[in-house]
Amino acid sequence: MLDIKNLQVYYGVIAAVRGIDMHVDPNTIVTLIGSNGAGKTSTLNAIVNAVKKSGQVIFDGKDISKEPTHRIVREGIALVPEGRRVFINLTVEENLRMGAFNNDANYERLRDEMYTLFPRLAGKREQKAGTLSGGEQQMLAIARALMSEPRLLMLDEPSLGLAPKIVGEVFEIITELKKRITILLIEQNAFAALKIADFGYVLENGTISLADKASNLLGNDEVRKKYLGG
């Protein structure tokens, strides 16, 4: 589904990503874990060409390295950024319509699917997004991204700032989504991410220090010590 080859991201003279290689199989959850500043968010932004980069990004056999962001979205990649970034002055329903800007013909079907997937949103469709709880805003951000019917959904810190109960709900939804799409997940809660992921990469200082099945990383002494509190 996704192949990344020798990806590099620089901000001025500062190297955020230093020549990483990654592979994501279809209908899997792949997670990137690492400390703040390791290069995780820069990697996602580079995939959708939102930052200056070098290297190759190949999606479903097509080199999209130089494609503009809006065309990458049309190719089937959606990014839910850190901080959710819903349109706070628009209603839930209006946010969903914004997500279907290039898929308007399927809007009603997709909207109804989102209310089934996220029942918390169904009763708040006319409510301004800015009045929702943090968890509901995160669900809306994911639902809005799904309105473009992506084949690859990228999530940046979906549990950030959420209560543990809501984190559990969000991760249940992410697990359910794997039945229909591929997911690339960045998550500070490394234990929660590795529990639902098929494969994981550990980023340190812009490089990949470990890559293995998620179940193996959960049992790795170095990973447990650095990221799992063990």
Short description:
This protein is of the alpha/beta class and 230 residues long. The chain has helices at residues 40-47, 69-75, 92-99, 107-117, 119-122, 134-146, 164-177, 190-196, 214-218, 221-227, and strands at 2-11, 14-24, 29-33, 53-59, 62-63, 77-80, 152-156, 182-186, 199-204, 207-213.
Structure explained in plain terms:
The chain is 37% helix and 27% strand. β1 (2-11) and β2 form a beta hairpin. α3 packs parallel to α6. The protein has a domain at 1-74 and 189-230: Rossmann fold, CATH 3.40.50.300. The model has no long low-confidence stretch (mean pLDDT 91). Strands 6-7-8-3-9-10 form a 6-stranded mixed sheet, with helices on both faces. The chain has a 4-stranded antiparallel sheet with strand order 2-1-4-5, with helices on one face. By secondary structure, the protein is α/β, with parallel strands linked by helices. The chain has helices at 40-47, 69-75, 92-99, 107-117, 119-122, 134-146, 164-177, 190-196, 214-218, 221-227, and strands spanning 2-11, 14-24, 29-33, 53-59, 62-63, 77-80, 152-156, 182-186, 199-204, 207-213. It starts with a strand and ends with a helix.
